[in-house]
Design a protein that fits this description.
Blueprint lengths: L7 H10 L5 H11 L3 H12 L4 H5 L1 E4 L2 E4 L12 H10 L5 E5 L5 H9 L4 E6 L2 H11 L3 E5 L14 E6 L14 H4 L15 H13 E11 L4 H10 L3 E7 L4 E7 L6
Parallel strand pairs: 3-4, 3-6, 4-5, 6-7
Antiparallel strand pairs: 1-2, 7-9, 8-9
Helix pairs in contact: 1-2, 5-6, 9-10
GO molecular function, one term: peptide chain release factor N(5)-glutamine methyltransferase activity
Pfam families: MTS
Keywords: Methyltransferase, S-adenosyl-L-methionine, Transferase
Length: 263
């Protein structure tokens, strides 16, 4: 492998030839991140093969933070900033926050940055995601391996102030229409939401009332098309539901609210 450094012009041209829309910006990022000429050659080849830029770099920018991203872990999307914005508006110091299907831990990391005094528990059933999330959330967040609410301590039942969930919500038959960067390089369990895309949302909404405190909230990311059905799932579990949409982020969340009356 040649040790002669590749120029920015060459890197840009190769990225453009590979179909990268923002070739100039990506070239600058690869050049900045590569430690040696050999590193740059390897990173460029990986990107040319179709690997997501964030995986090639080893990080993704999300809500002003650099989130570490490992191969095989769901890459945080810009649209999830809407979920984060709504969560920040709801949390106060010492609140118990549970992030379900946490992936890289991006949501929890940002919430800890904005409100360091929350009691954060992040959960994922994918070991690689848990390892990545522990790096991003650091010692201030507890990252647990397991299925949805299963690994949470029973002492949290009825005491959680906020549950956030960016669970898979792509219908199985729609996976094939996703960009190759997602469907070929990210874990299918982080994408496939079942026949109608709502399998995980049903389970999350159905289990939330057992864990939420009176007045607690659930925020679920969903699609604009699925939002009415997601809201119905939340209502069916006994919560009030409202849909929040951001055209700027092309993002939609459903927010469920528990009654403030004691159990």
């Amino acid at each position: 492998m040649s040790s002669v450094p590749l120029s920015e012009e060459v890197v840009t041209a190769r990225l453009r030839a590979a179909g990268c829309v923002f070739a100039e910006e990506e070239a600058q990022m690869l050049l900045a991140e590569a430690g040696t000429p050999a590193d740059l050659v390897a990173m460029l080849a990986s990107r040319e093969s179709g690997a997501p830029l964030e995986v090639v770099l080893g990080w993704a920018e999300f809500c002003g933070l650099r989130i570490l991203v490992d191969s095989g872990v769901f890459v945080p999307r810009r649209r999830t900033a809407l979920l984060v914005q709504e969560a920040i508006a709801l949390i106060t110091p010492h609140d118990v926050v549970v992030d379900i299907c946490c992936g890289s831990g991006a949501i929890g990391a940002v919430l800890l940055k904005r409100q360091p005094r929350i009691d954060l528990r992040a959960v994922d059933n994918h070991a690689a995601a848990v390892r990545c999330a522990r790096r991003n959330c650091g010692p201030d967040g507890q990252v647990l391996l397991g299925d949805l609410y299963e690994p949470l301590p029973v002492t949290l039942r009825g005491r959680v102030n906020l549950i956030t969930a960016n669970a898979p919500y792509v219908p199985t038959d729609s996976i094939s229409t996703m960009p190759p960067e997602a469907r070929l390089y990210e874990p299918m369990v982080a994408l496939d939401g079942g026949p109608d895309g709502l399998d995980m949302q049903r389970r999350i909404a159905g289990g939330a009332p057992e864990w939420l405190a009176p007045g607690g909230s659930l925020i679920i990311e969903t699609s604009r098309q699925q939002a009415p059905r997601t809201a119905d799932l939340v209502r069916a579990s006994g919560m009030q539901a409202r849909v929040v949409r951001s055209t700027e982020l092309d993002a939609t969340v459903v927010i469920g609210a528990m009654s403030t009356f004691a159990r």
